[in-house]
């Protein structure tokens, strides 16, 4: 059979880089309510325990509810509807929505083919709800989330969102608001500078550590920095857009004019390769691309331990992942010697 291909194949995408303390708020809530990753965070277990002790009983109750129903995902969906400057503005927007509108925005985006079912399910169509569940039956929590959203009462959702966001914002975000805002703003400026010099693909790779190639139906990639979930990059889907909530760089965390203070990204790279197990993993990935399972077999370590090492290598920009396959980032490896030389010989 002969084929004349007249279809359009996307060769690039746009990149949006934005930040908000409300996204930081939602990601902090997501982090604290996902205990499976608590041993793989930059925040130590002692720091996590100290944070939990400081939280009010009212906020703790809302977080328990959030953990049971994954309402953090609903929050992130809602925060993408428009830009919000404060929790009050966000809540006023939620109150302006009808019940079906609130549920539509809270329901997860599955794919463009399921948008009719998403809309119908938000209006109480049980058949559409079940079809939406079937479309994502392999997902770890989307089916339960969809049933929860569709069966929830409007006022209960509103009250939960207000109590959850206000509680975390006031008790966790506000005490360090100036510092957190400064870190996020510095990182956005850093990534926008990269985007002016690099292609969208390399911008995403350097920011999020993800080797994301253009795909049909995705016009934009939205990059949103965070502090709370370091060193993890969280991926999400929106209509016509892919979202990466990525960890801020070490250099963004530090605000220093000390010429003897090394760049945070360089320190992160050196720490990553300063461990013999990670260096061994990196050598394997220089030789060939490997899945997590393959790396686990080759190094003879547990899956969780290997994943932790890969996460640190990815956060340092030495490894990137596409789907389930990990690969060494050649440019970053070659550039370490140059970065060290530049720092050591920088005028003071």
Short recap of the structure:
The protein is about 60% helix and about 10% strand.
Task: Please explain how this structure is put together.
With 348 residues, the chain is of the alpha/beta class. The strands form 2 sheets. A 4-stranded mixed beta sheet has the order 1-2-4-3, sandwiched between helices. It is built from 18 helices and 7 strands. It has helices at residues 21-32, 45-54, 57-69, 71-79, 87-96, 99-106, 115-122, 126-135, 142-151, 154-173, 177-197, 200-208, 250-253, 264-273, 276-287, 292-299, 303-315, 330-344, and strands spanning 14-17, 220-226, 234-238, 241-247, 290-291, 319-322, 325-328. The protein is 58% helix and 9% strand. It is globular, with a radius of gyration of 22 Å. The chain has 2 domains: 14-245, no CATH class; 256-344, Arc Repressor Mutant, subunit A, CATH 1.10.10.10.
According to DSSP, the number of beta strands is: 7
Fraction in beta strands? 5-15%
Query: What profile does the largest beta sheet have?
Result: 4 strands, mixed
The helix fraction, in percent, is: 55-70%
Backbone shape: globular
Round the Cα radius of gyration to an integer and report it: 22 Å
The oligomeric status of these chains comes to single chain
What's the mean pLDDT score? 90
**Number of domain modules:** 2
Question: What are the segments in which pLDDT stays under 50 over at least 5 consecutive residues?
Answer: none
- Helical segment count: 18
Spatial strand arrangement across the major sheet: 1-2-4-3
Structural class: alpha/beta
CA distance, first residue to last residue = 68 Å
